[in-house]
Design goal:
The protein is an alpha/beta fold and about 900 residues long. A hairpin with a 3-residue loop joins strand 8 and strand 9.
């Protein structure tokens, strides 16, 4: 019966996925697929009730009539109609890969459908490989860090071969490890050439083995990249795949060999070049007309072909969109600007990204416990003094919180095993320096404490280490898991300790850099799972996947969007153990990451909005550059960008970073007192709904009063979110077109809760007085180290407070904040003033009183008709 059930499902699945590509509804496709499935098992004795049960299971498992999230696309021109999913009906490579994902890897149908839809959108943007005329298509695919971009371009390659592309070149990072990892993946999931130790097929060959007409040749292997000496003469008129490192020697050799082939065989084939991590090494950072080597060689390789497509994949597209759109040289041809299309991959189901780790909505009421564990001075001092590779000997022993992070990793493995996730990969990342000598010294220190921990776990239940693990489990792990959304299974210490004694025997410590022979070969351990503490630097900071990453100890920092985001390897799939994940890092890095996470989410939402409006890649670059947070990418990559203003339409701006100086707070208190006193006669007190928070609201305040206040109110000079001078500049710009002429101003009055442990704190603004300041920053204590020159209080605006000026019935069922901001008239701005409770721990270094408290502000902006092109150029090369 199981055999009949398997045949029934296989027949249904294959035909359903083929039929729904061109039938008018999923329902019709499912009906026909079920009919074919019933015919296949007609000769077997199966009760009708069982067939009906199987049919229902097919509808549920394959999400019949469940609409997937459509892939957002920005294109320069109208979509090309040469490509249709109907072309893949019965196609060999895509069908095999799709069936492999479902039947062997057991992916959800929804995830496979998402890859199908997004790769169809990319295919529509490419040139027709069967055309004899030349084409040159350049585009970029925007994904998420560690979100499955490889699975997506694997699907794209399979489809490309099905429709007629002959040569696919994958540019895979700058390190051998990542190139080998990608080659192995494509050997299994495109070429179908791998077998296990017993000679049995691995990968897509488990679905269909290759026939003579479906052979894909390859110039590269897991062990071998392109070399200066060709290993043989290949006929590039047949399907060929190359996985190539972005290295000048390798790319030079590839270019020479392709030119030789072209001259020898009069080669004219369609080529698809996929650039994984396209913002790394590929972007031209030269200051003169001669391009940088990697960029130059990629362009020269493209110039070998008349029919070519370049598709970059990245989670951080900033540098790529700032490439000169007109740059062109005689030998290299056009630069790699994604002139034709941008495709945004939907966020995958169960992917844990910025929203899961950070409060990206900047909601002061966010109830989730933080997974960040800010480093204290004892750890910070160890690494602050290590500035060069010669400082390696300054690392003498593992500092306290690094030791704690290792204990947390042991606990994570044990708890995952008890939750039924046994034999899964578990990884911990320790990244403190880019210098290999320092990494080696850190690895030696980790080895030493690791051996001590495992020995005590095995042989001394009453040791200090075991007691520390127990305390960490009961006071930290359990409390976080209990507060995490959803029902999470809990285990007593005796169960956990018993599991620790077994699982700790299987943990290994690797050094991942050019000095070490250690390799993160998860494939080798796929049956039993690899449990590894990986100590490294740049080699671990981009592209290379850390399977089952749960604990990160991270010290490096940068203020550039792309570098910072790519170094955050903790994003990915964390099903069933997200509550166990921890990031040990400095308060400053944690704060920068949270700001970056907020910016990334806002920019991604802007991408989706512009895609619906059928805008171009350039118009997304406009919005990207106008975002008021941090440096997008390195200055060399931004040399074509010229920004003179920020666009604040449909955003909420709230101050959360303040100078840790009494003069800073006293100045803003005085400025606010003057502003409030001028409006005192206009204020009326109100409460919204059943909430206890009070609001003193003044309506129809003229813009000049608001501008004077904002001009005098100080924001921290290097604040990466709110800059009062830029906000003033923007308001003045939109005033010229009749916007933001009138304002609602609200002073927020606090009502301390029992949870905070704080009493009411009255605040006196001259003649105007409120009963209590607003309690904010209780959770922010972990983000603030003693002696810092700034205070990060995190979010100050609680849920929906920015909309107290709107019709509450109209927004009652609305969830999208941008949609709610669109309800506000363009003439009206919303300014909230927060007198902040000074007894919160983060403010303890300043002497406050009821006549001088910290003042936070927030501004909710409506939409705007401002013509962006009149304010600044996004890319100086585009007219």
């Amino acid at each position: 019966m199981n055999e009949a059930r398997g045949l029934f499902e296989q027949t249904f699945a294959t035909n359903y996925m083929n039929l729904k590509s061109f039938l008018s509804s999923q329902e019709k496709a499912a009906e026909q697929a079920l009919e074919l499935a019933r015919l296949v098992i007609q000769g077997q004795i199966v009760e009708a009730s069982l067939i009906e049960q199987w049919s229902l299971e097919m509808y549920m498992k394959y999400n019949v009539n469940l609409d997937i999230i459509k892939t957002p696309v920005l294109r320069l021109d109208e979509v090309s109609y040469w490509y249709s999913p109907k072309l893949l009906l019965g196609a060999f490579f895509w069908t095999r890969y799709r069936d492999y994902l479902i039947r062997i890897k057991h992916w959800d149908q929804e995830a496979v459908d998402s890859i199908d839809d997004s790769t169809n959108e990319i295919m529509r943007s490419l040139g027709n490989p069967n055309e004899i005329h030349s084409f040159d298509k350049r585009g970029l695919v925007l994904g998420y860090v560690q979100s499955g971009k490889t699975a997506n371009f694997t699907g794209l390659i399979n489809k490309a071969y099905d429709v007629g592309y002959k040569l696919v070149i994958v540019l895979s990072g700058v390190h051998n490890d990542l190139r080998a990892q990608t080659q192995l993946r494509l050997d299994e999931e495109v070429i179908g050439s791998r077998v296990d130790r017993e000679g049995k097929p691995v990968g897509v060959a488990q679905i269909y083995t290759n026939t003579a007409e479906h052979i894909i040749s390859t110039w590269t292997t897991v062990e071998r990249d392109i070399s200066s000496e060709p290993t043989g003469i290949f006929n590039l008129n047949q399907r060929t795949l190359m996985v190539v490192k972005k290295n000048s020697i390798v790319l030079e050799s590839l270019k020479n060999q392709l030119e030789y082939q072209k001259n020898l065989f009069s080669l004219d084939i369609p080529v698809l070049i996929i650039d994984d991590e396209a913002d790394q090494a590929s972007v031209d950072t030269s200051k003169d007309e001669d391009p940088k080597t990697i960029n130059k060689l990629i362009r020269q390789i493209l110039e070998v072909f008349n029919r070519k497509c370049y598709v970059g994949y990245t989670a951080t597209p900033f540098a790529n969109l700032l490439i000169s759109a007109e740059a062109k040289t005689e030998d290299e041809g056009k630069d790699l600007y994604p002139k034709d299309f941008l495709v945004g991959l939907p966020k995958p189901k169960e992917y844990c990204g910025p929203e899961e780790f950070f409060n990206v909505e900047e909601d002061a009421d966010d109830p989730r416990p933080s997974l960040i564990r800010p480093l204290r001075n004892a750890d910070i001092e160890v690494f602050t003094g290590i500035k060069t590779k010669g400082d390696a000997d300054k690392f003498e022993e593992v500092p306290p919180q690094m030791g704690e992070s290792i204990l947390a990793f042991f606990l994570t493995i044990a708890v995952r095993n008890l939750r039924g996730q046994r034999n899964k990969h578990n990884s911990m990342l320790i990244h403190t320096s880019r210098f290999k000598d320092v990494q080696s010294t850190v690895k030696d220190g980790v080895d030493k404490i690791f051996n001590e921990i495992t020995t005590q776990i095995q042989y001394n239940e009453d040791s200090k280490i075991v007691k520390a693990i127990k305390e960490l489990y009961e006071e930290e792990v359990i409390t976080t898991s209990r507060a995490w959304p959803g029902k999470i299974q809990e285990f007593n210490w005796e169960e956990v300790y018993k599991e620790l004694r077994e699982s700790s025997k299987k943990v290994r410590v690797f050094e991942i850099n050019g000095n070490s022979k250690d390799a993160l070969d998860y494939h080798r351990y796929k049956e039993d799972g690899l449990n590894v503490i990986a100590v490294g630097g740049d080699k671990l900071s981009r592209g290379l996947t850390l399977e089952g990453l749960s604990i990160t100890y991270y010290f490096r920092n940068t203020l550039m969007y792309d570098t910072l985001m790519q170094m955050g390897r903790w994003f990915g799939y964390r099903k069933g153990y997200m509550d166990l994940c921890r990031i040990y890092t400095t308060a400053e890095i944690a704060s920068n990451f949270e700001h970056l996470a907020i910016a990334m989410i806002e920019l991604r939402r802007e991408f989706d909005r512009l895609a619906k409006a059928k805008k171009t890649p350039l118009e997304y670059a406009v919005k990207m550059l106008s975002h008021p947070t941090m440096t997008l990418t390195s200055p060399l990559k931004m040399r074509n960008a010229a920004v003179s203003n920020i666009i604040y339409g449909l955003t909420l701006q709230q101050t959360r970073i303040y100078d840790n100086k009494e003069t800073f707070f006293s100045h803003n208190m005085k400025v606010t007192e003057n502003f409030i006193n001028k409006l005192s006669s206009q204020f009326t007190k109100t409460h919204i709904g059943s909430g206890k928070t009070g609001y003193y609201i003044a309506r129809e305040v003229e813009v000049n009063s608001v501008l004077k206040f904002l001009s005098e109110y100080k924001t921290r000079q290097d604040a990466d979110k709110v800059d009062s001078s830029k906000i003033v500049n923007y308001i003045q710009q939109v005033n010229e077109i009749g916007e933001l002429l009138y304002w609602t101003v609200a002073v927020v009055e606090g009502e301390p809760s029992g949870k905070s442990g704080l009493e009411k704190f009255p605040v006196q603004f001259g003649k105007f007085k409120i009963d209590s300041a607003v309690v904010r920053g209780v959770k922010a204590e972990e983000y603030n180290n003693q002696g810092q020159d700034k205070i990060d209080i995190r979010a100050i605006v609680a849920s929906r407070q920015e909309f107290i000026d709107l019709d509450q019935d109209a927004i009652k069922n609305m969830k999208d904040k941008k949609e709610m901001r669109m309800l506000r008239r363009k003439e009206n701005g919303m300014l909230l003033i927060y007198p902040l409770h000074p007894k919160v721990k983060v403010f303890e270094s300043i002497s406050f009183s009821e006549k001088m408290v910290p003042i936070g502000i927030a501004i909710s902006f409506p939409d705007s008709e401002l013509d962006v092109s009149k304010i600044y150029e996004v890319n100086k090369t585009i007219k």
